[in-house]
Each structure stands twice: as C-alpha cells, then as structure tokens.
Automatic annotation (TrEMBL):
Residues 7-343 form the Enoyl reductase (ER) domain. CDD domains: sugar_DH. PANTHER family: L-THREONINE 3-DEHYDROGENASE. Belongs to the zinc-containing alcohol dehydrogenase family. This is Galactitol-1-phosphate 5-dehydrogenase.
Length: 349
C-alpha cells in the first residue's frame, strides 16, 4: 500500500510499504479521512519517542475491506471509525474502567501503524459504526470525544460562566459541548482575532484577545469582579495554564485539556489561589470511560449523526496522501491560517 512514512523528525516520505498481516481479531479499514492532531505536530518538532519508521494518524474513518476470522460485529463494506487507544484491559486502572490511565496501552499512529496510509488494521473492539455519517465528520469524532471527556469531567452546571482558553479545534469543540450542557455564558480567550470571531459565530457570548486586551480587567468586567465559575485550558500554553488559576472564582473549577510541552512556573498568587479560593483543579487525558470506549465516543457519533453539533466548518485544509509532508509544513511553519487539516488517503486527484 501507499503510505506517508515518518523516517525522522518532520521527514515524511510517500512510499510503498508492505501491509501488516491481518490478525484474527482485526479488520482492515480503507482510510477515507484522517485528521492531523496537534499532538502529531508537537512530536514532529520536539522528539519522536517511538520506533521509526512510523506511520502517524489516529483520527480516522473509512470502510471495512477485510476482516479476521474471529470478527463478528462488522462486515465488508461497513462504514466505521477507528479508536486509536488500545488499553491492556488487565491493569489496575483498566479493571476500574479508567482506561485512559492504562499502564500498558497501545496507540495507533505512534506505537503501531496509523491512518496516514491507504489502509490500517484495527482490532474489532476498537471499531465503531458510523452509518451514513460523512467520512470527514466521522474523522472528527476522536477530538470531539476528547472535548466531551473534559466537559463531562468538569461537570458544568446550568448558569455557570465558563472561560475557554485557546479556541483551536479542541477549544471550539469544548464550546459546542458547553452549549449542550446549558451554561449561562461562555467567554472565549485567544490571541487570534480570526479564531475569536469564529468562536463568537459558534455561540460564545464574549471574547477576549489577551494579546491586545487586559485579560484580568476584562474578566472582572464581565463577571462583576467575581471571576468565572469554570476555566478550561485548551491551548497547551504555559501562559494560559497559569492564567486559568488567576481568573477563577472562589470554589470554582479549573480543567486542563491542553498538553504542557514546557515547564509551567506558577506565580505566588496563582498557586495561592488554589487553596485560598479552594479551587478544584482537574486534568483530562484522552477520551475514554467504561464500557470502552465510553459515552464520549457514542454520544459524539449520535450528536453528529443527528446534526446537533457541527464540525465540518472547522476543517480548513484537505491534502492527498502524497502531500502529507506539505500538510505538516503548513502547520509547523504556520504558512497560513488553518483549522483542522485532513489527509484523504484514498481520494483521487
């Protein structure tokens, strides 16, 4: 098959490779759409921790074209998505249904070949049907489930005022779920006017460009000096990771969805706010719960299928498989504004 193969940091070669043999409990999926995740690009500019050569891609949808002898839930021609996380189902955390905390997990797109290829092999238990859902929308289920995992975990209440730091793809999807949850007001915070305008069009009530405006003055203005009930960090910035602790009200909650790729040093005030304001601080990793893969995934498919959540407009660029390196150059070098970038491995020119 053809694949976009990673040989070293930001060195992707479009080439022929041998497909892995299909195991008895696996299906082979013809990949129709695969999204580039922010974590993919961070790995590309820092340090790749896994074996090389590798094939990335863990947000994907496609068609079942072959199945192993022990597969009974799917047939050839079924439209599906793949779940990239492969828990061991045997450690302490898996036994408790806390699959995201598995101590010996596999991961499609890092520890095994991913979806930036014409085909990918996936265990039957890591596949969900999508019915007639559009393939590109279906490839957004994984980030949508990540966003829902955080929103479900922070437990917003009707009437809450919520600040969302960073309105990239995950931030926008968090906003979608917050609207479903019935919060009173959503404040979008970013340094891009274009992103903030998109957030307002998506249903945010207020926005703050923290590069141009005084964040703390605006939060005080919008909340009558009280602070927000919930701050959700979706940017993965060491700056916003501290700011969340400075804008949250007494007895408020802070949720971290963005990955920290640098050391985070807290000011005395930020750290003291945790105990003086008795804040609840929670982190959210991945998107899984019991029964595997969890309500995050099944609910995301259901809401997309019924048109209750819109994601197609978040997709800004589409690339053929042979142009995967160009797609990563676009993102890493910030050659132009972008949202979700899709690779379409089986689309013809």
């Amino acid at each position: 098959m053809k694949a976009a193969v990673l040989h070293s940091i930001n060195n992707i070669v479009y080439e022929d490779i041998e497909m892995k043999p299909l195991k008895a409990d696996e299906v082979r999926i013809k990949v129709m759409a695969a999204g580039i995740c922010g974590s993919d690009t961070h790995k590309m500019v820092s340090k790749w921790k896994y074996e090389l050569p590798a094939i990335m891609g863990h947000e994907f949808s496609g068609i079942v074209v072959e199945k192993g002898k022990d597969v009974h839930k799917f047939e050839i021609g079924d439209r599906v998505i793949g779940i990239p996380f492969e828990p061991c189902f045997d450690c302490e955390y898996c036994h408790k249904g806390e699959f995201s905390l598995c101590e010996d997990y596999g991961m499609i797109g890092t520890k095994s070949y991913g979806a930036f290829a014409e085909f990918v092999n996936v265990k039957e238990r890591n596949v969900l049907p999508i019915g007639d859902l559009d393939f590109e929308e279906a490839a957004m289920v994984e980030p949508l489930a990540v966003a829902l995992h955080g929103v479900m975990g922070i437990e917003p209440q009707m009437g809450d005022v919520v600040a969302v730091f960073g309105v990239g793809t995950i931030g926008m999807l968090v906003i979608e779920w917050l609207k479903v949850a019935g919060v009173k007001e959503i404040i979008a915070i970013d340094i891009s006017d274009e992103k903030l305008q998109e957030a307002m069009e998506r249903g945010c009530d207020r926005s703050i460009n923290s590069l141009k405006e005084d964040l703390f003055e605006k939060i005080n203005e919008y909340t009558n000096g009280r602070g927000v009930d919930i701050a959700l960090e979706c940017a993965g910035s060491n700056i916003t990771q501290e700011q969340c602790l400075l804008v949250t009200s007494k007895k408020g909650k802070v949720g971290y969805l963005g990955i920290a790729y640098k050391d985070v040093h807290l000011s005395e005030q930020a750290f003291e706010n945790i105990f003086r304001r008795e804040l609840t601080v929670k982190g959210f990793w991945n998107s899984y719960s019991a029964p595997f893969p969890g309500k995050e995934w099944t609910t995301s498919i259901d809401f997309l299928s019924k048109g209750k959540i819109k994601v197609k407009d978040l997709i800004s660029h589409r690339f053929l498989l042979k142009d995967t390196q160009k797609a990563f150059h676009l993102i890493i070098n910030r050659e132009e504004p972008y949202g979700k970038v899709m690779i379409l491995p089986n689309q013809e020119e």
